[in-house]
Write a structure and sequence with these properties.
CATH topology of the largest domain: Rossmann fold
Number of helices: 14
Shape: elongated
Radius of gyration: 41 Å
Oligomer: single chain
Helix content: 10-25%
CATH architecture of the largest domain: 3-Layer(aba) Sandwich
CATH superfamily of the largest domain: Class I glutamine amidotransferase (GATase) domain
């Protein structure tokens, strides 16, 4: 580092003339005063000091500055910033060989990313090629950081070249870094690459496989396809499992939009499987790389525990009990509060003799059906209702309200279960309404999309089934559904001032789910078709309610989360139920989960305890990567562990197929006073870099006229002058 030091004055003719006059007049007055003193030595010293002070002040009047100039000895530097993010894999650049052949953006800039392209500049300057971003499906593309860090990494930087498609989705806007470079007089030459409009493409956006399925039960696999083709067409999508199963479906793909549909896969064995969905390449599809997605799914043997509580064994109860008893995936327990029985219970092994006495017994049930029972002697107690509310709210159990013609559920309004009820009942008509003319269900828009009400494989067939179902002759006196609840079906004919009477209403309460069934005539659905629709409906209800609770469970631990199909960068709410070895819920403890992302990055999430009797621990985790995440749940007090996994849907922030953004590159060049050049103008780019001026030297200026040290010197001289005058008796 070479540097020079000089003393400069910011004088003007007027300031110089005034300073000279003041100094000359002062010198004359000093000489006269010395003569009057008879040329006394002490007086001469004082007058010389006076003249020195005036000369110093006159010099400060001309604004002297001490200038230090630093000039680096090393060569000036140029950095070539090359975008290596996943969007650079988009195949939308015309090849040099033929205009009909497309190449990837990364291949199109390969020549500029080679050291040989810049050899002509190496004699005068140092050229460094720096790649940024990732070529795989990792974090998003950040243009701000490499631009901002360039002058920090290269101290003698005189220019930069940015080669990119301009697509940024992470970090601050790159124009902010460009503004900082402009202040340092560092131009940026940008080389945009890629098509600014999306080419004709068929992209498989999502594959929504559930976390787990049940062997022998059909699993619904939803998917979404996006098309930028100008015309709709019909294609056959194929779903293959790692076990060799294959399912196909014809799908009509909408033009210039998104199409959502689903497939049904019926796994026959248990284990961990990988599902692969493929959309065949269309003749006009220019980007076939995004026509396939994979997702993991665990297939298990199912054993759900269900409790059915009823008073009189009405027909709805009898057929419901039969449906659940014959379901191989359900273990049903029945409790009958029949006033004609000498003992509470029933006649076979499905029956229990009393309501579960404690939380450890009740929490074993995944779903509880409450029939025409209420808060009275020989039936439910206030404590029973409190525990039912607790297992729904804190342990993700399901609760089904099935009122009857005796109106006993009206007494539940005085208990904590009233908070869970999805509807407001008419207190003046607790026994409900009967009619000789059968009533019918009518699905709402939510009901048409719900899995609970899917009694046929296609939407049109499902609507036809519901329209043809046998009617019911009794329904509960419902005023309206509560706010926040979802009404799936209403009475086809009867309405009040709030609209149609809700008959099938669901809600989420805490961690669990609640269903209200407003009629006891579902057993009539068996007419002419036996168990086809009746068994399917209640089987779907039980599995829908128990799904979240059974995401992952061990002997003493259970883990579930919401949403059950998380997306990238979405916050996941984790709930854990931890039991002691005796089976009682752990009130307080140290619970943590070690989550390993697909990239191998691990994060430990600590759970907080609600500190109550339910053994509930909660945590939050924000997903950053798509794919399968491994989870190990651990409790320090019980030394228990639970290994499971969850799958994050969606793509990374940076994916191929998105259009380029040349306007971003143009703005960066404009702000920094650089240029925008295309890939084929390499010689012009090299010439522009070669013509960059040498970096300006670094200059440090010290303004002596306003420096505190100067003021201190003047003050010191004035003090000495005053003391001298006093000592010789002039003051």
């Amino acid at each position: 580092m070479e540097f020079t030091r000089t003393l400069t004055f910011l004088w003007t003719p007027w300031s110089l003339a005034i300073s000279a006059v003041v100094v000359l007049v002062t010198a004359g007055l000093c000489l006269m005063a010395w003569q009057r003193s008879g040329y006394a030595k002490s007086q001469g010293v004082l007058e010389f000091l006076r003249l020195t002070i005036v000369i110093l002040l006159a010099a400060m009047f001309n604004q002297p500055e001490w200038v230090e100039e630093f000039r680096p000895e090393e060569k000036p530097q140029v950095v070539i910033l090359v975008d290596d993010s996943a969007s650079m894999n988009t195949r939308d650049v015309e090849s040099d060989v033929t205009a009909s052949t497309l190449t990837t953006r990364k291949d199109a800039i390969a020549a500029l990313a080679d050291d040989a392209a810049w050899t002509s500049l190496t004699e005068r300057m140092d050229v460094t090629i720096q790649r940024f971003g990732k070529s795989d499906s990792g974090p998003g593309s950040d243009l701000f950081t490499p631009l901002k860090q360039a002058p920090e990494k290269f101290s003698n930087l005189i220019g930069a070249v940015l080669i990119s498609d301009g697509d940024w989705n992470d970090g601050p806007p790159p124009v902010q870094a460009a503004t900082a470079l402009r202040m340092k007089e560092i131009p940026v030459f940008t080389v945009p690459v890629g098509s600014p409009v999306r080419l004709p493409d068929i992209e498989l956006l999502s594959l929504g496989a559930p976390t787990f399925g049940v062997a022998g039960k059909a699993v619904r696999i939803p998917f979404t396809i996006e098309s930028t083709l100008p015309r709709e067409f019909i294609t056959t999508v194929t779903l293959k499992s790692s076990s060799g199963d294959e399912v196909t479906r014809d799908v009509r793909i909408a033009a210039m939009g998104r199409t959502s549909d689903s497939l049904l896969w019926n796994p026959q064995s248990t284990g961990d499987f990988t599902l692969t969905l493929t959309v065949p390449k269309h003749a006009d599809d220019t980007l076939p790389d995004n026509n396939q997605l994979t997702a993991p799914i665990a297939i298990r043997e199912e054993k759900l525990r269900v409790l059915v509580v009823e008073s009189f064994p009405r027909w709805e109860y009898r057929y419901l009990r039969n449906a659940l008893s014959r379901d191989p995936g359900v273990e049903v327990s029945c409790l009958l509060f029949h006033p004609g029985l000498s003992k509470v219970g029933g006649g076979n092994k499905d029956y229990i003799k009393q309501f579960p006495t404690g939380l450890d017994e009740l929490s074993k049930f995944d779903v509880v059906f409450l029939g025409d029972v209420g808060l009275e002697d020989g039936q439910l107690t206030t404590e029973n209702c409190r525990l039912l509310k607790g297992i729904v709210e804190h342990q993700a159990s399901g609760l089904v309200f099935m009122p009857g013609g005796r109106g006993r559920q009206a007494s539940l309004k005085e208990t904590e279960l009233d908070d869970l009820m999805p509807v407001i009942m008419d207190e003046l008509q607790p026994d409900g309404w009967g009619s000789r003319t059968p009533g019918h269900f009518e699905l709402t828009e939510l009901g048409r999309r719900s899995l609970l009400t899917r009694l046929a494989d296609t939407r049109d067939d499902n609507l036809s089934v519901w329209e043809d179902l046998p009617g019911f002759q009794w329904y509960a006196a419902v005023v309206r559904a509560k706010t926040g609840c979802e009404t799936l079906a209403v009475h086809q004919d009867i309405s009040n001032r709030h609209g149609r009477i809700p008959l099938l209403v669901t809600r989420t309460f805490g961690a669990g789910k609640v269903l209200f069934m407003g009629t006891d005539g579902a057993w009539r659905w068996r007419e002419g078709v036996e168990d086809k629709y009746h068994y399917r409906f209640w089987g779907q209800v039980v599995r829908w309610m128990a799904y979240q609770r059974n995401m992952a469970k061990g002997e003493t631990m259970r883990l579930y989360y919401a949403p059950d199909q998380p997306q990238v960068r979405q916050t996941l709410v984790l709930h854990a139920n931890v039991m002691e070895s005796s089976g009682e819920p752990l009130a307080k403890g140290d619970v943590s989960a070690r989550i390993t992302a697909p990239s191998g990055q691990t994060e430990t999430v600590r759970f907080t305890s609600a500190g109550d009797e339910w053994g509930v621990f909660d945590a939050r985790f924000t997903t950053q990567e798509p794919g399968k995440h491994q989870v190990r749940l651990f409790c320090k007090q019980t030394n228990a562990t639970l290994d499971t996994s969850f799958f994050v849907q969606g793509d990374a922030a940076e994916t191929p197929g998105k259009p380029a953004r040349p306007e971003v590159m143009e703005e960066i060049a404009r702000v920094t006073h650089g240029k925008v050049l295309t890939v084929d103008k390499r010689d012009q780019l090299v010439q522009s870099l070669a013509s960059l001026p040498e970096p300006s030297p670094s200059i440090r200026r010290v303004q002596l006229w306003s420096h505190p040290a100067t003021a201190s010197v003047v003050l010191l001289l004035l003090t000495i002058f005053w003391i001298g005058r006093k000592s010789v008796g002039l003051v």
